[in-house]
Design goal:
This protein is an alpha/beta fold and 229 residues long. The chain is built from ten helices and five strands, in the order βαβαβαβαβαααααα. The chain has two domains: 124 residues, 3-Layer(aba) Sandwich (Rossmann fold), CATH 3.40.50; 91 residues, Winged helix-like DNA-binding domain superfamily/Winged helix DNA-binding domain (Arc Repressor Mutant, subunit A, Orthogonal Bundle).
Length: 229
């Protein structure tokens, strides 16, 4: 798996040089992944993302100058940057998880994850999938899917209990959305529906477009909250 023009391009963001060095060794050992840059603060991350245009960013949370949540928010707001961001932290905390998703992150990874998990994360995010384990997805839904939820992960989730789409989902798109809500990958959806992964990607793109969702996680939350899946 590679990016559009070669290996998956990764930007490492962490205020600890040893962690960045360890991540670089792990990721650069793979022929389909290359580390294109590093940043030690949130402000450096924003600048590096703009300059380097990586495919994937691993983002620490607690950093000087600007934390990873704010850096994520600024990077995802830049229309010229299309990187998928994985929040990487030592803290398995709901407030970090929800703040990261709200800021536009596409995944959440703990620093005690294995090297294999880190490599898989880069590939999953580069392919357009969300990096959320089923148990994490359940936590997101418990927080955001209930009508009385005090906050939403973005503008696509509205307060109304009824959502009318200008361009309704087709039967196949609804099937794909249902499987997305089960935290299935594109490959798993393809196997379940007996279609190609390229076709799945097309359906996922159309689902996101029709729902006005930023990413798969937001689409899943929207589906559960409004009974679309």
């Amino acid at each position: 798996m590679t990016g559009a023009a070669g290996p998956i391009r990764v930007l490492l963001v962490d205020d600890h040089a040893m962690i960045r060095a360890g991540f670089r060794v792990i990721l650069d050992s793979q022929p389909d992944i290359t580390v294109v840059g590093e940043a030690a603060t949130g402000a450096e991350a924003v600048a590096a993302a703009s300059d380097l245009k990586p495919d994937v960013i691993t983002m620490d949370v607690q950093m000087p100058d600007m934390d990873g949540i704010e850096a994520t928010r600024r990077i995802t707001a830049d229309p010229d940057v299309h990187a998928a961001i994985a929040i990487v932290t030592t803290f398995d905390r709901d407030d970090y998880l929800f703040s990261a998703l709200d800021a536009g992150a596409s995944g959440f990874l703990l620093k005690n994850a294995s090297p294999e998990d880190l490599m898989a994360a880069a590939r999953v995010l580069a392919s357009g999938d969300a990096l959320l384990a089923p148990e994490v997805t359940r936590r997101v839904l418990q927080r955001f899917a209930a009508p009385e939820a005090p906050a939403s992960p973005g503008p696509a989730v509205v307060a109304s209990d009824t959502l009318v789409l200008a361009d309704p989902l087709t039967e196949r798109e609804t099937e794909v959305l249902r499987l997305m809500a089960e935290a299935r990958s594109n490959a798993e959806i393809a196997a379940e529906l007996y279609i190609g992964e390229a076709t799945v990607k097309t359906h996922v793109s159309r689902v996101l477009q029709k729902l006005g969702a930023r990413d798969r996680v937001q689409a899943v939350v929207l589906a559960h909250r409004h009974g679309l899946g």
